Structure to design on (732 residues):
């Protein structure tokens, strides 16, 4: 009922905004003059057939309350895919869990998690001395927390591993949060504007943390924001058991409701989009035929609204916004510019190191190996972490409350996505220019000088593009902070009077001109001049290496963009120097993975000792058994792993193949429960196809004894089952 009500109102807003967005798109296509031309090339398909990362991590299985070692793969779409073990991945068996991490937060301490869980169900807090909802066998947990969906619990053995996994997980969250395609020039703006209009109709202005994921996920968050308080007040008092059990039940209830809402929202939204698409040809024909009349009609409406609104808006800007613009801009500029400077530094260092290594180790023969790694630098979460961390300094002290900014995370993630894009543009431009030069080189010295010369050219282009991107980001962020504040301030005196302007719109053009949108454009114009001036002054003062708007690089490389239109460069194919006898599949396997395997380089124990968690091995003690209420120390866990490994190594190998098949008959097809139905795929991020999931040779090899785990056939379950730890868990 709640989903139907919310989606009904939203779809009405969407249909209205679709016509406006279509008009704006066609008008831009006819009249548009884009901004400054980018100097760097843009890669069309950055990670085709590549895996970001794969490695082993311990996961807590809620159903049997045990920790199990899982082989985690992060394909090019940044979904988290967990397999029983590495062998299951190599044999292309169905994964255990698929997770789209949009909307999740990465927590690195149980205390942080317990605080969030306690706040999610007020009045239900475990008493001191009672076991909490979660215990971790090491001091290095990694918890994926979501306000509505199920939670995921992982842990590793060392702090070094924890930091690296955290970088990988954060990259997944960052990418999945940005789930609405910017390539769509009509549907995307129509959707985001409809979300904004719906929330403003509920008196909710300002930024919204849960505008993350694909369209259906965002709509599900919109419904849950209203539904969850009602659900909590209805179901919360009826939960039975001790506090941890009630908390656990509440998380399961919330997750189940979230999944129901998701399916309902998807059906209604898809129907609304299909309806708009059906009307699109007729609407577009009208726009192209009557473009001049529509523009004239809109200008007439805007002039009337401007005369009514602008005097009030200018007073509001002068008293409540203008004094704070420079403070907001400075708060944004410092961490953002430091982040882009770090991107430049990391790129410079990687290319310089590659140059030295290629010259010292064999010239062109080694070039392919290093260029293959360099080409994916922007998608290496660990190497890029030093750039992303600069945005953690972003603080809008005192300004968040004034301007109703619930969180700075939306600005942090946007800047980080820009950083990654600029890094990839720089790398792609570098490799394109270098590839063009290779045919003219005469030995190592020529190669070294050419790499250095191209690096300097690319850095100049990076500085120009970086300035352009950052100035655009600052302007958008300032608007995103100030416009909702102004709309909220002006609403009591202006909002009620807007209805009288509706009669100024011709009925034939009512699908393309909305009073509410025109009103917002007028409010935007009232503050835009001050924002442009503030950013311009920062550039004139050369603050944070920003270029003046008047500084334009025209056709510095007239043929460069033609080079970027060519086929993708396959360095390993062209310059690896590998013998022809080597199978092509093996060469692909070597270059498959962006990040090398995360390992603990300091200890003798190999990471990922699955024997700790095998049913056939001695079960680790439950924390409460040995020392009630006290989880085992990391040294105890390590000792148990070593003991289990020692016992496993003494076993006879006759049952090995049976263990590796996880209890299935190699000649028999997998059980129905093990198969993943088409409907169970991720709504946004689906795992890479089987051909794209072959593991990299860089993956550390674990012995069969380490990967084997006993398992039993699970009975067939109904489609969509998500609770069984022995079956496939699908996640948003």
């Amino acid at each position: 009922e709640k989903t139907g009500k919310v989606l009904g109102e939203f779809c009405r807003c969407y249909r209205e905004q679709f016509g406006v967005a279509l008009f704006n798109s066609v008008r831009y296509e006819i009249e548009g003059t884009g901004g400054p031309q980018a100097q760097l090339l843009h890669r069309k398909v950055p990670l085709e057939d590549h895996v970001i990362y794969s490695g082993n991590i311990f996961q807590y299985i809620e159903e049997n309350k045990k920790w199990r070692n899982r082989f985690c793969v992060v394909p090019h779409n940044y979904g988290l895919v967990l397999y029983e073990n590495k062998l299951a991945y190599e044999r292309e068996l169905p994964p255990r869990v698929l997770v789209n991490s949009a909307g999740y937060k990465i927590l690195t301490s149980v205390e942080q998690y317990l605080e969030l869980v306690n706040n999610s169900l007020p009045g239900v807090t475990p008493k001191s001395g009672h076991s909490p909802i979660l215990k971790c066998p090491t001091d290095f947990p990694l918890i994926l927390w979501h306000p509505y969906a199920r939670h995921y619990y992982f842990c590793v053995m060392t702090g070094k591993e924890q930091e690296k996994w955290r970088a990988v997980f954060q990259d997944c969250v960052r990418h999945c949060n940005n789930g609405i395609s910017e390539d769509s020039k009509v549907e995307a703006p129509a959707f985001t504007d409809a979300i904004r209009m719906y929330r403003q109709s509920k008196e909710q202005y300002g930024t919204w943390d849960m505008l993350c994921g694909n369209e259906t996920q965002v709509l599900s968050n919109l419904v849950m924001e209203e539904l969850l308080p009602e659900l909590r007040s209805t179901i919360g008092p009826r939960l039975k058991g001790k506090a941890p059990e009630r908390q656990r039940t509440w998380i399961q209830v919330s997750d189940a409701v979230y999944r129901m809402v998701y399916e309902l929202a998807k059906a209604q939204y898809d129907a609304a989009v299909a309806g708009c698409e059906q009307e699109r040809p007729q609407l577009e024909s009208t726009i192209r035929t009557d473009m001049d009349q529509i523009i004239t009609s809109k200008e007439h409406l805007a002039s009337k609204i401007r005369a009514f609104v602008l005097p009030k808006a200018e007073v509001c800007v002068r008293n409540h916004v203008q004094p704070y613009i420079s403070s907001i801009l400075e708060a944004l500029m410092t961490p953002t510019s430091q982040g882009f400077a770090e991107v430049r530094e990391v790129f410079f260092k990687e290319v310089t190191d590659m140059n030295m290594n290629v010259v010292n180790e064999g010239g062109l023969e080694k070039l392919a190996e290093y260029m293959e790694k360099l080409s994916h630098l922007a998608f290496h979460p660990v190497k890029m972490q030093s750039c992303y961390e600069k945005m953690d300094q972003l603080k809008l002290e005192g300004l968040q409350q004034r301007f109703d900014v619930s969180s700075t995370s939306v600005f942090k993630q946007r800047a980080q996505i820009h950083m990654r894009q600029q890094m990839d543009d720089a790398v792609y431009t570098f490799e394109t220019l270098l590839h063009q030069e290779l045919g003219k080189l005469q030995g190592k010295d020529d190669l070294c000088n050419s790499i250095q010369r191209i690096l300097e050219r690319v850095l100049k282009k990076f500085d120009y593009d970086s300035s352009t991107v950052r100035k655009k980001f600052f302007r958008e962020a300032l608007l995103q902070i100030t416009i909702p504040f102004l709309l909220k301030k002006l609403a009591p005196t202006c909002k009620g009077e807007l209805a009288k302007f509706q009669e100024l719109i011709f009925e034939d053009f009512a699908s393309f001109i909305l009073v509410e949108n025109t009103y917002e454009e007028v409010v935007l114009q009232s503050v835009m001049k001050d924002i442009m001036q503030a950013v311009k002054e920062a550039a004139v003062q050369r603050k944070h290496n920003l270029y003046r708007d008047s500084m334009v690089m025209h056709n510095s490389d007239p043929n460069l963009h033609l080079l970027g239109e060519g086929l993708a460069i396959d360095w390993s194919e062209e310059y690896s120097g590998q013998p022809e006898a080597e199978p092509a599949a093996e060469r692909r396997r070597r270059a498959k993975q962006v990040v090398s395997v995360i390992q603990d380089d300091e200890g003798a124990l190999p990471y990922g000792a699955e024997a700790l968690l095998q049913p056939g091995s001695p079960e680790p003690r439950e924390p409460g058994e040995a020392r009630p209420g006290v989880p085992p120390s990391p040294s105890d866990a390590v000792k148990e792993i070593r003991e289990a490994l020692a016992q496993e190594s003494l076993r006879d190998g006759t049952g090995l193949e049976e263990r590796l098949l996880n209890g299935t008959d190699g000649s028999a097809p997998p059980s129905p429960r093990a198969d993943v139905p088409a409907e169970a795929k991720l709504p946004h991020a689906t795992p890479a196809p089987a051909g794209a999931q072959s593991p990299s040779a860089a993956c550390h090899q674990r012995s069969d004894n380490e990967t084997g785990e006993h398992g039993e056939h699970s009975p067939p379950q109904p489609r969509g089952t998500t609770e069984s730890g022995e079956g496939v868990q699908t996640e948003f």
